[in-house]
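Hi there,

I know you've been waiting on this one. I reran it after we fixed the sequence typo, so this is the corrected version. Both the input and the resulting structure follow.
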Amino acid sequence: MQAVAEKLDIGSSETLRNWVKQHEIDAGQRPGTTTEESVQLKALKKENAELKRANEILKAAASFFAAELDRPHTRS
């Protein structure tokens, strides 16, 4: 690994080892999370965070408008 990493001018043999390991996972030769699954998981986590923020905003808005409905209104 070290010799190949040096020939390819890669920082360390560990980087090359990780690339080979990920390739084996992506090819189905080794168990683990594929690159595609990692990308999907990242996107889903981002979407989940956005939905949680939107939900909090909607809860705050609902609370605000509910309080407005409970206030007595005076007509001028």
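Quick highlight: Residues 12 and 46 are 32 Å apart (CA to CA).

Best,
R. S.
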